[in-house]
Amino acid sequence: MDFKNKSIISLRDLTKEEVEFILQKSDEVKSDKHPDALKDKVMASLFFEPSTRTRLSFESAMISLGGKVFGFATQDSSSVSKGETLKDTIKMVTGYCDVIIMRHPLEGASRAAQEVSSVPIINCGDGSNQHPTQALLDLFTIKDKFKKIDGLNIGLYGDLRYGRTVHSLSMALSHYKVNLYFISPKILQMPDHYKLYLNQCGLKYFEAESLEEVADKLDVIYVTRIQKERFADPEEFVKVAGSYKITLNTLGMLKKSAKIMHPLPRVNEIDTSVDNTEHAIYFEQAHNGIPVRQALLGLVTGGIR
Amino acid sequence: MDFKNKSIISLRDLTKEEVEFILQKSDEVKSDKHPDALKDKVMASLFFEPSTRTRLSFESAMISLGGKVFGFATQDSSSVSKGETLKDTIKMVTGYCDVIIMRHPLEGASRAAQEVSSVPIINCGDGSNQHPTQALLDLFTIKDKFKKIDGLNIGLYGDLRYGRTVHSLSMALSHYKVNLYFISPKILQMPDHYKLYLNQCGLKYFEAESLEEVADKLDVIYVTRIQKERFADPEEFVKVAGSYKITLNTLGMLKKSAKIMHPLPRVNEIDTSVDNTEHAIYFEQAHNGIPVRQALLGLVTGGIR
Amino acid sequence: MDFKNKSIISLRDLTKEEVEFILQKSDEVKSDKHPDALKDKVMASLFFEPSTRTRLSFESAMISLGGKVFGFATQDSSSVSKGETLKDTIKMVTGYCDVIIMRHPLEGASRAAQEVSSVPIINCGDGSNQHPTQALLDLFTIKDKFKKIDGLNIGLYGDLRYGRTVHSLSMALSHYKVNLYFISPKILQMPDHYKLYLNQCGLKYFEAESLEEVADKLDVIYVTRIQKERFADPEEFVKVAGSYKITLNTLGMLKKSAKIMHPLPRVNEIDTSVDNTEHAIYFEQAHNGIPVRQALLGLVTGGIR
């Protein structure tokens, strides 16, 4: 399977075989370091919107493989403010590097970049649209923990409407025989076009408004943050956010083997008292960003095959 | 010719032989990569004023040769705001690196830095004064395309008063037997001291207010952006900027072999429909920043001879 | 002596033997470069508060030893603004690197980070509390110049109340038989708990309000900046700051062999006319940040033993 020069824009572009291949390569990279695999490769890291986790883990992934990094972490440390279009910025940068990773506030920005780029683009989040590398590391973490994906009951919990991580993860899971549980307040339900897509893939999903309804079935609870700015009425936010929280009390409802995931950053939707229980795997999940991103960088630049 | 420890502050400091030597070394670097030429060298990248193109291409140039980079991309990510003078900042950084590249909003800042630095300084733009590495890559691009510089008719178009790239390029071209055409609105004409300098060098230049007057003579049209903030009257800006634009229609006036250059970023002074014509070489020009800056970094640090 | 995986949070945690060992290693690193000592090590550089000197010298120190760096230079280029706690940020980053250097506006932040980190933390300043690597490079500079520390008369001059560098330096000096002179305006005197600590260590200190009183005794005058924001009354600031200045006139009061130090940045508390005298060693002091930080990075990551 040849990923060389392939861009990673949306999970929708990847076949099941390709997803599985990436997971397998990530596993190889995790157990067997390749300190010089990307020795002569240069990565441009273009963050038109700030990020900690994604940017830092990508940069760490690249340099740990001997690769080199340049770029910008915020739009105002670039001259984008002079009015240059995204396409012009990409056409320029494409001459300076072997791979571009980018985050942008607008949906579709990575796709537009790919159209004019002569090097592969990896989408690190475009608006509330997609965040494919997050979905791949989520999938990797599930497989690493359960040694399988098929047959699992996976709950997505919190803001399913605007959360790009749950959108990308649903796409990724559409390749597997899983049961999905969408647990969210009414106004933050999974958008219809994702549900339609899952239907077409023959995937079963169930919707619920409270965790209690489905808690004892779940193998995985994937928690996302509910953001204040999604609510017109601040009191409504306080009420909703207050009831979408994982605490030590919640754990009693869960299977003993159930695992709690979170894309991070976490504010208070998971109480820190949960961190040291066997259910919590969100920091391990974050750390899996390294092997998965190393595998991706290696595959698209040709440094890993 | 020994460039080791030489600062690159202004084109005016370089003899024709030195310019030609840099162009020749750039050509060698472009065709024959030196992946480890700067292996043990460290570059400080000090941008007191933000930049995308110059900073990113310099950093990419350095790391591609095995060199290492640290620095800051905006003044507020440094403690310059605590009131430290530029000279003190340079005296400190000079102990941490083998070469300093810097951009600063004030004219003459790089020269002041050079006075106290024990390592070579490369000026990446000081106010509306000079931007020598841009001029060198412009020259490199012209020579690369036409296989000569002498004898060409070169038009500088747009804002010739405040545009530091056209100032540096004029200086660079003063070493050659070219005809210069300055095409600009009256209030944005080339400053008198540059014209005086060109006179002293025996260079012929012609001034025009519209491209039509000279279009059929030009081998190169070097376009620069006209900035709103240069006009007291916003309506005057709209009128002027509207007439200083390159579109598909403009191309009909040009020689078939004429090439359009631009230091980028471009806003709308060149219509994107022009990008795919044979006249457009501005992205190639931007990409030439890599070999030219690699050659310069190599020469001044002693990594390339 | 094994420093591997040891965090450097406060001078108070280091025994005299450990301090001496670090100084000795710094000396070795200074005279004998180790270009590949940290070849496979990755450093996270987390500046929740901007810095030039400390960040740049640490990054230069790391890359000069072949190590790799990622991180952020300002809080707003990270997603810390999304409300993530420091501990969560550290728990994440700890999976991406071999060592973390951090500066934070709050006292005790580095200690809190250390509690949850699986890699060593080096404190680069936490509020007005501690800045241990600065103290170590100060100590290194004194020893390098005088070939001893015991027996010296060391004056700390300026803002002794809020200046974290003088706090850390006092701690460091508490291991030696020195006489300390605290010279400051009344409202900026050394805090009582530091004086109490020095008493317990059996160290002698003297307090003065003007340099004249003690100038002829001093071997070292360590100058710090007096900041306007410490004064309720701006006129009071002008009066005080005006009298706490080192000029060419001051030098006449000093021993011929006395050395003037400053953690930098300097604003106008030392006149630039002093820079070229034999008394001035503050830029050399800044440059010593490289070997001392190289030694520390090497020791805590195990790359240097």
Describe the structure in your own words.
The structure is a homotrimer of 305-residue chains. By secondary structure, the first copy, chain A, is α/β, with parallel strands linked by helices. Chain A has two domains: 11-131 and 288-301, Aspartate/ornithine carbamoyltransferase (Rossmann fold, 3-Layer(aba) Sandwich); 132-286, Aspartate/ornithine carbamoyltransferase (Rossmann fold), CATH 3.40.50.1370. Chain A is 36% helix and 15% strand. Chain A has eleven helices and nine strands. The first copy, chain A, has a five-stranded parallel beta sheet with strand order 7-6-5-8-9, covered by helices on one side. In chain A, helix 6 (164-173) links the parallel strand 5 (153-157) and strand 6. In chain A, helix 1 (16-31) crosses helix 5 and helix 2 packs across helix 11. The longest helix of chain A is centred in the N-terminal third of the chain and has 16 residues, at 16-31. Chain A is globular and about 55 Å long. The interface between A and C is medium-sized, with 26 and 27 residues.
Element layout with pairings:
The structure is a homotrimer.
Chain A (H helix, E strand, L loop, with lengths): L15 H16 L10 E6 L5 H12 L3 E5 L13 H8 L5 E6 L4 H8 L4 E6 L5 H15 L6 E5 L6 H10 L5 E5 L8 H9 L3 E5 L11 E4 L10 H10 L4 H4 L7 E3 L20 H6 L1 H13 L4
Parallel strand pairs in A: 1-2, 1-3, 3-4, 5-6, 5-8, 6-7, 8-9
Helix pairs in contact in A: 1-5, 1-11, 2-11, 3-4, 5-6, 5-11
